[in-house]
Amino acid sequence: MTTSTLLFKQYYLACLSHASYLIGDTASSRAVVVDPQRDVSQYLADAADAGLRIERVIETHFHADFLSGHLELQRATGAEISYGEAAVGAAEFPIDGLAHGQRLSLGGVQLEIRHTPGHTPESISIVVREHADDVVPYGVLTGDTLFIGDVGRPDLLTSVGSTADELARSLYRSTREQLLTLPDDTRVFPAHGAGSACGKNLSTETMSTIGEQRRTNYALQPMTEDDFVEAVTAGQSVAPLYFAFAANRNKQDHDLLDESTPPAPMSLTDVLAAQRRGAVVLDTRDAATFAHGHLRGSYNVGLGGRYAEYAGDVLVARQPIVLVTEPGTELEAKNRIARIGFDNVVGHLTDPAATFVEHPQWVTVAARLSVADLAARLATSEPTQLVDVRGPGEIAAGTIDGALEVPLPRILDRLAELDPGAPTVVYCAGGYRSMIAASVMRAAGFTDVSDLVGGYGAWESTRPASSVRS
What we know:
Blueprint: E1 6-13, E2 18-25, E3 30-34, H1 41-49, E4 53-58, H2 70-77, E5 80-84, E6 96-98, E7 103-105, E8 110-115, E9 124-129, E10 139-143, E11 146-147, E12 150-151, H3 164-179, E13 187-190, E14 208-209, H4 210-216, H5 225-233, H6 243-249, E15 265-266, H7 268-276, E16 280-283, H8 287-292, E17 294-295, E18 299-300, H9 307-314, E19 321-324, H10 330-338, E20 345-349, H11 352-358, E21 363-364, E22 367-369, H12 371-378, E23 385-388, H13 392-396, E24 399-400, E25 404-405, H14 411-414, E26 424-427, H15 432-443, E27 449-452, H16 455-462, E28 468-469
Parallel strand pairs: 3-4, 4-5, 5-6, 10-13, 15-20, 16-18, 16-19, 19-20, 22-27, 23-25, 23-26, 26-27
Antiparallel strand pairs: 1-2, 2-3, 7-8, 8-9, 9-10, 11-12, 13-14, 17-21, 24-28
C-alpha cells in the first residue's frame, strides 16, 4: 500500500452558502483545490503551512452563484484547471477535461471522477480515497448535484438550450447510478448549504453521509423518474438576477482579483460626478444608519447580511459602483462583491458621517414603519401600495392581504408595474431585503416609500389571523 497522509479541509463561506475544499497528500506534498472562492489567499496559506503544492484546481461545474478563483489560483501556483470533459471548449481558457471514471493520484491519496450531470450538463462529483484500494471512500465531493437534504435545481440553464425536464432526468440517473452506488459510510461534501438559491431545501449541515441522505433526502427516496422530475422542479425560488452574468463570467478569461488593495478614497464632489456619469452609490451600512441619513439616490445593501447575493439582485453588471461604508470595511465591501464578479468599484466615499453633516443638502432620510404604524395606516381609507419582495415559497406560507408580489431579484424589471406616486410600503421576511428594495424604488423616483421594520415575521407575530392571507 502506498504511504499517504490525507489532508482534507472544508472552507465554508456563510454569506454565499459556499463550500470549497483543499485536498492533499502530505507524504507526497501534492494537493488540489475544489470549487475555490475568488479570494484565494486562505488556500495558499494553508497549503504552504502544510508543505503542499497546489497542482490542480478542479471545478465541479460552471458556477452561477459566485465567481470562482480558478484563474487566481492558476496565476499564483501554475496549477492546471480541470472540469468534467463535457466542459471542454466552453471556456476562453485551457481546460484539462476529466473523463468519467478517471483516477487522479496525489501520491497515496486518489481522486475518482464521476460525471453527474443534472444541475448542469458538465457537472462532476469527486470520490476521495486516502488509499487507492480503500473499499469505503473517505468521501465524495458532490458539487451542486447532491446537497444535504436536497439536489441541485435543474432549471437554471433553460435559456441556453437545456430544458429543466431534460436536466432533471439526467439528475435522476446521476444520483441513482453514480452517488447512491457508493457505500453508505461515504461522507458527502456538497458545494452549498442552507440559503443557497441553487436548491430549495438545503440543510444547515455542511457534511453528511450517503447512508443518511439515502434515508432522509426527499429527492433520493424510491420514486419513478417522472415523479422525481416533478418533485425537483416544483417550488424553486426565483433565481438571483446576477446568476446568468456570473455563469458566463466563469467561462471567460477575465481580470484577476487584487484582494489586498482597498478601493480608492473619493471626495463628495468626486462621488457626485461619478453618480451623474451613471455610477450607482452602494451604501453598505446597516439599515438603521442608512435610514438616519444617506446620499440621495443611494442603494442600501447592508454588509452584515447576504451582501453580495442581494447586491447582485439590484445592480446592473458592469455598472460603476461607488461604496459608502463604515470606516475600515472598504476592502471587505469591495472583495465580497467581487466574489460574484462585480469588479467595477471605482472608489469609496471618504468619512461618510462627517461628509453628510457638512453637506446636508445632498442627504436624505428613509421612512420606516413599525407593525403598529402599518396597521394604523391600513385601517384608514388612505390607499397604500403594499409590495412583498419575498420569494414564492415564503409567500405561499402567508402574506398581508392586498400585497403585490414582486420578488427582490425581479424588482428592477417590474418597477414599471408599480405606481411611483402612490404611498408605498415594502416588506420581506425580517426587514433586510425590504430596505434594499425601498432604496432602489426611491432612487428610481418613487416619492413615498417606507419599509416595514421586522418584516412579515413581526407582522405575523402581532396581527390577528384575519389580516393574513394564506
